[in-house]
Amino acid sequence: MARPYVVLSVAVSLDGYIDDTIPERLYLSNDRDFDGVDALRADCDAILIGAETVRRDDPRLWLRSEQRRAARVAAGKPANLVKVTVTRSGDLDPAAKMFHQFIEAGKPLVYTTIEGREKLGDQLDAVAAVTAITDTDFWGTLLDDLGHRGIERLIVEGGTQIHTAFLSAGLADELRYAVAPLLIGQADAPRFVQPADFPGGSRRRLEFVDATVLDDVVVLRYLPKSTRSIPTGQSVTR
Ligand SMILES: NC(=O)c1ccc[n+]([C@@H]2O[C@H](COP(=O)([O-])OP(=O)(O)OC[C@H]3O[C@@H](n4cnc5c(N)ncnc54)[C@H](OP(=O)(O)O)[C@@H]3O)[C@@H](O)[C@H]2O)c1
Fold first, then answer.
1. Domain limits at 169?
2. Which of 36, 75, 143, 180 is most open to solvent, judged by the fewest CB atoms within 10 Å of its CB?
3. pLDDT tens digits, residue range 26-73?
4. How far is it between the farthest Cα atoms of the chain?
């Protein structure tokens, strides 16, 4: 089975951060952008986030729109997506919302290392399907496994480590990058990506698809795998 098409989705502040250091969850998006992400989720089969985002934000990873959920069911799909997370430490709370709410697509999937599997023991087995990945190509193996499970489109929603891993390994087909009008300004806050060796190096231009203005949020789309580079973009939709 083919690997899924991978869409990375992120909301960033004007100064490149994806969160601040205040414990309460920060929402960078506005209503129209949340709806855009909801529409993108509805077109996917699975949604993946890193364990740190599970611990910090405890998201439900659901489709907010009842209409979109109904349309999926009418098309023979589960109302919500297959939920996926990754951990090395095994530090995942079995009570996390992603394991209990909106799980019409079946038990959420947890991918881990051999060590992570040992640390986890059986504590997640009642709420998740845990897979230990033995080889060095963690992300490639994970995508192969998702492909075998029939996942054709995967949305990856962060955080920093996960976006960095997909982009540096050349595994992201599409990037949806929403810019929100905030200046976080905190050195310890997480950024979109960490320093890494990205394919093509620091001078490579990603192929631009389009830009959409959603009130005070601007959504940019790129094709990170494409070898075509376009120096200036003209396509702006309001
Ligand atoms: N603005 C946005 O669009 C957006 C979206 C999502 C998240 N965020 C923010 O991003 C921040 C979290 O980012 P983050 O970089 O700290 O964490 P993260 O990317 O959410 O998760 C990182 C964790 O994933 C696991 N992991 C990473 N690589 C792995 C591998 N190869 N094998 C197995 N497990 C692996 C590890 O879990 P263990 O530690 O358990 O080993 C690692 O600590 C939060 O502040 C969150 O709010 C923002």
1. 5-237
2. 75
3. 999 999 999 999 999 999 999 999 999 999 999 999 999 999 999 999
4. 53
Residues contacting 75, CB < 8 A, separation 6+: none
Q: What is the CATH number of the domain that holds 217?
A: 3.40.430.10
Count of domains observed in the chain:
1
pLDDT in tens, 186-220: 999 999 999 999 999 999 999 999 999 999 999 99
CA–CA separation, 55 and 85 (whole Å): 11
- CA dist., res. 16 & res. 159, Å (int): 13
Q: What are the angstrom distances between the C-alpha of 51 and each of 39, 74, 109, 201?
A: 24, 32, 12, 28
76 C-alpha to ligand 1 centroid (Å):
32
If 0-12 CB within 10 Å is exposed, 13-18 middle and 19+ buried, where does residue 199 land?
A: middle
Q: Pocket of ligand 1, candidates 10, 19, 52, 54: which has the most ligand atoms within 8 Å of its Cβ, to mutate? A: 52
Using the atom order of ligand 1, give the atom closest to the CA of residue 160: 15
The pTM of this model reads: 0.95
